[in-house]
């Protein structure tokens, strides 16, 4: 088994899948939004904060690259020599809505990681078959105070849903370029989640 990276569009099921992997496969979960929030609180001068969009993704990419490189080897174990195997079998899933792989890949190469799909299980979640109305309904149903879209009015949610659907179609092509396996969770979401778990067990 390998460490896992999950990325994709909003409301495609990234956090749900990460929790499922945690519960069924004993991985621990790292949420990229929480990393961004921590950087925004501790280092505001880095201009990394929730709601800053592509700028935050770009600025946090070096940290993400070094984290992935330092804690991942071909079989998912830590590379630190002083751990003496303490990280063996301590697998993680990193999940977030977007990563700047143009910046991350050169950093991974510093750690001997030339091809991400050989070192990580790469999962991309999209919802290309959903309508704008369905996406708005999802946000209104599932948003909690921990979601950055919490409290948006209907007009803002609709605008966001339109952008999200357009981004989802672009994202599919972008992620395939980096070796991600794409799963569309628009329909039969629970069945798709179960299939992903089985694929992970088979070391996709």
Can you walk through the features of this model?
Helix 3 packs parallel to helix 4 (101-110) and helix 6 packs across helix 7. The longest helix has 24 residues, at 154-177. The protein has a single domain, classed as Rossmann fold. It is of the alpha/beta class and 204 residues long. It starts with a strand and ends with a helix. A 5-stranded parallel β-sheet has the order 2-3-1-4-5, with helices on both faces. The chain has 8 helices and 5 strands; from the N terminus they run βαβααβααβααβα.
SSE arrangement:
Elements lengths: L2 E6 L5 H12 L2 E4 H11 L10 H19 L20 E5 L4 H10 L5 H4 E7 L5 H11 L11 H24 L3 E4 L4 H13 L3
Parallel strand pairs: 1-3, 1-4, 2-3, 4-5
Helix pairs in contact: 3-4, 6-7
